[in-house]
Amino acid sequence: MLVQDKSGHSIVEISDRAGFKGLSVYSLSGEAAYLGFDKPDKGLIQLLGPGGKLFADASADGFKFFGSAAQAVAFMGADSADNGALQLKNSAGGILAEAGAIDAKTGFVQVYSRSGKSPFPIPNYIKGSNWEIAFPTRSF
User: Fold this and answer.
1) Which residue, 36, 39, 43, 1, is CA-closest to 21?
2) Contact, 36 vs 15, CB < 8 A?
3) 81 vs 101: CA distance, rounded Å
4) Which of 1, 50, 82, 87 could in theory staple to 75 by disulfide, Cβ–Cβ 3.0 to 4.6 A?
5) How far apart are the C-alpha atoms of 56 and 45, rounded to whole Å?
6) pLDDT tens-place string over residues 35-66
7) pTM (2 d.p.)
8) Which long-range contacts (CB under 8 A, 24 or more apart) does 68-74 make?
9) Contact 54/60 with Cβ under 8 angstroms?
């Protein structure tokens, strides 16, 4: 089903594209957003930028953001153990930085080196654990 404005431009389309069932919303320059399914029972939201290029999608796998070459450059979601995960990638898809959880009480942040050596050691991996600071109670 296609809804068009008075000038004949598409506004909304409900369709069954190959592998995608859902709702597409159009801007004057073309498709701008998609809401539907990418796999059986897995919802998908996609936002498209200039020229209809994929900019971002949200699915059961997490949130992904794409560069101009259609390569995922950022990801936020859950890892295989259902802990939070964050990745930043270069335009070729190589991971530059990531953050996540080692276990239920230990988080990490890692930055991958580019090339060459730094003039002095710079940590590229930080690991932390849950801990509490106890403040003594005082009576005044």
Assistant:
1) 36
2) no
3) 9
4) 87
5) 8
6) 998 777 788 999 998 888 899 999 988 999 99
7) 0.73
8) none
9) no
State the Cα angle at 115 between 112 and 116, rounded to 5°. Answer: 120
**Could you report the per-residue pLDDT of 73-125, keeping only the tens digit for each?**
999 999 888 889 999 998 888 888 899 988 888 888 888 765 545 555 555 66
- Count Cβ atoms below 10 Å from residue 84 Cβ, excluding itself: 13
- 31 neighbors 47 (Cβ within 8 angstroms): no
Domain ranges of the chain: 1-60, 68-130
Q: Is the pLDDT of residue 138 over 50?
A: no
Residue pair 28/35 in contact (Cβ under 8 Å)? The answer is no
